[in-house]
Amino acid sequence: MSHSAVDAALALATHAAKPAASITPIPDTLSHRSSISAGQSEPADPVLFVTSELADFVKVGGLGDVSAALPRALLNHYDMRVLMPAYREVLESIWPIHVIDHLPGLADIPACDLGRIELPEGLTVYVLICPELYDRPGSPYLDESGQEWEDNAIRFGRLSLAAAQMAMESSQTRFEDQGWHPDLLHLHDWQTGLAAGYLRWNGDDTPCVYTIHNLAYQGLYGPEYLSRLGVPESAFTPQGLEFYDRLSFMKAGIIYSNHITTVSETYAREITTPAFGCGLEGLLSDCARDKRLSGIANGIDDSWDPQTDAYLACAFATNDWAGKRANTDHVRRMFRLAVSHGPLFAVVSRLVHQKGLDLTIAAAESIVRAGGQLVVIGCGEPAIENALRNLEARFPGAIGVHIGFSEREARCIFAGSDYLLMPSRFEPCGLSQMYAQRFGSLPIAHRTGGLADTIEDGVTGFLFDELSQQDFQKAIDRAFRIFGCTELFYAMRRAAMAIHYQWRLSVTPYRRLYHQLMVPAGVTAHSLRHVSI
Ligand SMILES: Nc1ncnc2c1ncn2[C@@H]1O[C@H](COP(=O)(O)OP(=O)(O)O[C@H]2O[C@H](CO)[C@@H](O)[C@H](O)[C@H]2O)[C@@H](O)[C@H]1O
């Protein structure tokens, strides 16, 4: 059978769910004004992208990747700038920081300095210099022993407050950096949710887009934090940011922002249901009804290219399967695995309940018995880390585990593996499956969220419907069978490598959304009330 005949046969055999329509499609309202901005004949609209991670400095998971790529992808159309905390990794980076302003504190939130860093590709990053909150070892969210920083509410209250202070139109405190002042805030996840609240409580109507990357992390704190964070008592109601007697950063973002997005169309629908809504499904259903909720899929940046990736043992292109095999051999050596002709399965993941590692751990023995091998890189919950270490000890030479975080190793594993296991319980978008596909590793994944939208079952990977050991095992069995049919296997690889989820595709819906929300210059209805937050 020729390659194209195999491809056609595979395409016919697929049972994949096609990406469904967005629950709130963003209407095409881009006017000449935006295109003029794109052509740079008048200044592009200023947008502040507020995030707790940026892969240039620090990345815990997918948010770091998105924050590094999406603002850069939007730079052609907007004067996009990023705001983030000056963690130790930022302070110790090679990039000079120019201190440009001082932001006052509020209640228990300390005052801080605002620095500016110029990153490659013209990306300006504002950093919050507040060593007492951010200059420490550990991750942005956890201390070195894996416990949440006990002052996270204040740390991310500080980030949210800074975003609001920078956007406020108050004549007294109006922020401006050489004429730059944001006309729109793009907030990400619970760590930034209070920003929209701080604006509204001060009568400021600067538009806010709030993107949910993971609804499961909500930033919930006791009512004593109302006064500590300077949140008005009147906001502590079920219609405000109260969530079962606690203050919810996530709910603040949803309630006070103009529009909510999440990172795939399927997840946007899922979070309006009790199974995925984490208790916020009612509110999110209301948002959907009011056309305030949309799904805009993530992309992946151009550095994910097996032909140019400097981290790989051997660059390779589609059909250069010897080149791909050189990477497989390299990964086997990295993890001290035996020489083998069987398939190499991989996990590159945060080791958390969401990712269904319990299913992978339970399937590992059957993978080894069937002649496969497994490599894992990840870090997270100690119980999962220990279970994986035990697995490695039980199957030396067949299972290799690296508890840790390494971009280089992750890329080598995507390039060297045949299959990537992602039995996620839920997956807002998922980037790893897209990286794997680019590098010719076929994802085996639960049909949920962004996984359902980016994997075509039997063509660019394998999907299973029910989150059960049995269904997952069936998908793994199918992968073994395909591995034995070389032509089919290579055809799937080719199909997976051919898809490229470029950020360019996500830029258009974000532009439409920004455009819809930004009031044309000169007719802004911003409150010019004197406020001091
Ligand atoms: N030990 C390790 N070493 C090196 N790299 C590692 C690693 N562990 C994970 N990574 C990398 O971290 C990223 C993880 O991104 P994902 O999107 O797959 O999941 P995450 O749950 O973090 O993101 C959340 O936000 C993103 C962004 O919106 C959504 O796609 C996702 O569904 C949602 O859960 C990938 O780039 C992966 O390669």
TrEMBL record:
Signal sequence, renumbered to the chain: none
Residues covered by the Starch synthase catalytic domain: 47-285
Pfam assignment, any one: Glycos_transf_1
Function: Synthesizes alpha-1,4-glucan chains using ADP-glucose.
InterPro entries from the UniProt entry: Glyco_trans_1, GS/SS, Starch_synth_cat_dom
Keywords, alphabetical: Glycogen biosynthesis, Glycosyltransferase, Transferase
The organism's place on the tree of life at top rank: Bacteria
Residues bound to ADP-alpha-D-glucose: K59
Reactions accelerated catalytically: [(1->4)-alpha-D-glucosyl](n) + ADP-alpha-D-glucose = [(1->4)-alpha-D-glucosyl](n+1) + ADP + H(+)
GO function terms (MF aspect): alpha-1,4-glucan glucosyltransferase (ADP-glucose donor) activity; alpha-1,4-glucan glucosyltransferase (UDP-glucose donor) activity
Protein name, per record: Glycogen synthase
Domain Glycosyl transferase family per the UniProt entry, residue ranges: 342-479
Recorded metabolic or biological pathway in which this protein acts: Glycan biosynthesis; glycogen biosynthesis
Family membership: Belongs to the glycosyltransferase 1 family. Bacterial/plant glycogen synthase subfamily.
EC number(s) given by UniProt: 2.4.1.21
PANTHER family: GLYCOGEN SYNTHASE, GRANULE-BOUND STARCH SYNTHASE 1, CHLOROPLASTIC/AMYLOPLASTIC
UniProt GO BP: glycogen biosynthetic process
